[in-house]
């Protein structure tokens, strides 16, 4: 049996795995296939050849003992900051994709708040080329909505689409000009790319340090009202309805935002959204400090609790909605691409495969190994920001 720690080095440039593996005895979890079972996976020349107990190993395959471990499709992060070019002291494509691989993410979407911003084909080509040479996973590029992300004039959205961007965003800044946002949505419909909005009315957040509420009043910190997010989302939902475009709302933090999205979706408007783990699990009360035990505590005003958008008040419907819709293979702002359903327990669909091994205690506490099979090569077969397929009114993103 091979050491799982060595498997990650088998991934080639851009995360493609072209060898053969035999994964024995892992708990395979794949909601798209309806699989949750202790079984084996045979991978031949980079493609999943068979899934089933007792599957035959391909000739010359490396055998991995996955007993006691979890095997899943690779995760897809829709909202990643690789910071290159311009901010390499914070992150690079090489280090960011290596971190993604260590956490089980085999595809990431790079946001455009770089320097220069991703508003020309030259920058798009640079990221694609660097990711191809240095990346550990697949990298898709999100282009800027406006030139330099300054919110004054549209970037050449058609040119960016032709260069291969998968979406548009001025992430880190909000497109506050309504006419500009309308035009961006109209162009995005012609190119078939979603517009990802960082919903924040800066007139309501200047100087803000945390969520506006009883905790901010007690701590004496300037507050960031939920309305700063909600007014932008309400406007953009109407603009999406007007243009027929796909609007995607980044890092939702407000229950009111969910209400606007839910209403828009009920009218047939193409609106999707994402939410971060900390907005699901933490509240603004943490900014005031917390004590768990004699050896585990968090002081008041700890800067680790300062995030953008801020942690909101407790008992928000955001948590109950997202928790109700969570699935074993989703983590953070992620979705999993679909693959053909097996006709029987031992099936032979040729699904492109990648291999990522991760130790216990990383992103998902229950998992020590992730063997990904999320597809390799061309564009995703499914929209990475596809709306939820549940019928209960949930607005979470991902299949």
3D architecture notes:
Helix 4 (178-191) packs across helix 6 (227-243) and helix 6 (227-243) runs parallel beside helix 7. This protein has nine helices and 18 strands. By secondary structure, it is of the alpha/beta class. The relative contact order is 0.16.
Radius of gyration, in Å, reads 22 Å
The helix/strand class is alpha/beta
Through-space gap between termini: 34 Å
Q: State which percent range the strand residues make up.
A: 15-25%
Instruction: Give the averaged pLDDT, no decimals.
Output: 79
Number of helices: 9
Poorly predicted ranges? 1-15, 319-399
Shape: globular
What composes the largest sheet?
8 strands, mixed
Helix content: 10-25%
**Order of SSEs:** EEEEEEHEHEHEHEEHEHEHEHEEHEE
Number of strands: 18
Spatial arrangement of strands, main beta sheet = 14-13-10-9-8-7-6-17
State the gist of this model.
With 399 residues, this protein is α/β, with parallel strands linked by helices. It has helices spanning 93-102, 121-134, 157-163, 178-191, 214-219, 227-243, 255-266, 277-281, 317-325; strands at 21-30, 35-44, 47-51, 62-65, 70-71, 75-80, 105-110, 138-143, 167-169, 195-197, 210-211, 223-224, 247-249, 271-273, 290-293, 296-298, 334-335, 351-352. It has an eight-stranded mixed beta sheet with strand order 14-13-10-9-8-7-6-17. Strands 1, 2, 3, 4, 5 and 18 form a six-stranded mixed beta sheet that branches.
């Amino acid at each position: 049996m091979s050491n799982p720690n060595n498997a990650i080095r088998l991934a080639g440039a851009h995360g493609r795995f072209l060898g053969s593996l035999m994964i024995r005895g892992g708990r395979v979890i794949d909601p798209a296939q309806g699989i949750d079972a202790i079984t084996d996976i045979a991978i031949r020349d980079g493609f999943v050849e068979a899934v089933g107990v007792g599957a035959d190993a391909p000739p010359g395959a490396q055998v991995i003992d996955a007993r006691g471990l979890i095997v899943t499709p690779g995760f897809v992060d829709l909202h990643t900051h690789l910071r290159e070019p311009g901010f390499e002291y914070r992150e690079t494509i090489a280090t960011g994709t290596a971190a993604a691989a260590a956490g089980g993410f085999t595809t990431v979407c790079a946001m455009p708040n770089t320097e220069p911003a991703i508003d020309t084909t030259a920058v798009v080509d640079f990221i694609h080329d660097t990711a191809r040479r240095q990346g550990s996973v697949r990298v898709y590029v999100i282009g800027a909505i406006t030139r330099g992300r300054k919110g004054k004039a549209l970037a050449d959205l058609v040119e960016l689409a032709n260069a291969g961007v998968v979406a548009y965003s001025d992430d880190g800044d909000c497109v506050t000009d309504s006419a500009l946002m309308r035009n961006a949505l109209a162009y995005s419909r012609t190119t078939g790319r979603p517009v990802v909005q960082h919903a924040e009315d800066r007139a309501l957040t200047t100087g803000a340090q945390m969520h506006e509420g009883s905790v901010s009043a007690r701590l004496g910190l300037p507050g960031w009202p939920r309305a700063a997010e909600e007014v932008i989302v309400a406007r953009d939902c109407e603009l999406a309805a007007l243009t027929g475009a796909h609007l995607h709302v980044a890092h939702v933090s407000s229950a009111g935002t969910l209400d606007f999205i839910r209403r828009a979706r009920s009218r047939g408007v193409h609106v999707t959204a994402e939410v971060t783990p900390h907005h699901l699990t933490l509240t603004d009360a943490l900014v005031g400090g917390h004590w768990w035990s004699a050896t585990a505590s968090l002081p008041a005003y700890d800067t680790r609790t300062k995030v953008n958008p801020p942690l909101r008040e407790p008992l928000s419907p955001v948590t109950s909605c997202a928790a109700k819709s969570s699935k074993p293979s989703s983590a953070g702002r992620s979705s999993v691409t679909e693959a053909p359903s097996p006709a029987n327990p031992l099936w032979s669909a040729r699904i492109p495969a990648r291999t990522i091994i991760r130790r216990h205690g990383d992103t998902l506490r229950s998992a020590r190994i992730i063997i990904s099979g999320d597809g390799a090569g061309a564009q995703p077969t499914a929209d990475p920001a596809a709306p939820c397929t549940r019928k209960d009114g949930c607005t979470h993103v991902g299949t």
